[in-house]
Design a protein that fits this description.
Blueprint: H1 16-30, H2 39-52, H3 58-67, H4 72-81, H5 87-90, H6 92-105
């Protein structure tokens, strides 16, 4: 097991093994591929929740996820780590095209 890597003084440490376990779980369950470059993003997005849940390590967070029979914690995980794109709601072109598509499909 690799030693936890400290991201900076305010970020929680995550070991290589902890990162790999979470990365594998995320890929298996959600199809999201987290590269090594996303390590700090994962820590940054999860540490507030982990502190709130009083989970001191990413290993304890992984155990928390694994033992949640409702899988609500997995939903919370994917919400925290995914970036929602809202281009669809902001592009003016779609306002023109969507009614045409709806008409053609009717």
């Amino acid at each position: 097991m690799g030693a936890p890597q400290q991201q900076n003084s305010s970020m929680m440490a995550i070991s290589d093994e902890e990162f790999n376990r979470l990365r594998d779980l995320i890929h298996k369950r959600f199809g999201i591929n987290l590269t090594e470059q996303k390590r700090s993003l994962l820590v940054g997005r999860l540490q507030k929740l982990m502190r709130k849940l009083n989970l001191p390590t990413f290993a304890s967070y992984y155990d928390y996820l694994s033992h949640d029979k409702t899988e609500a914690s997995l939903s919370e995980l994917v919400d925290l780590i995914s970036t929602n794109h809202t281009y669809f709601n902001r592009e003016k072109t779609i306002l023109i095209i969507f009614p045409l598509l709806h008409f053609r499909l009717s």
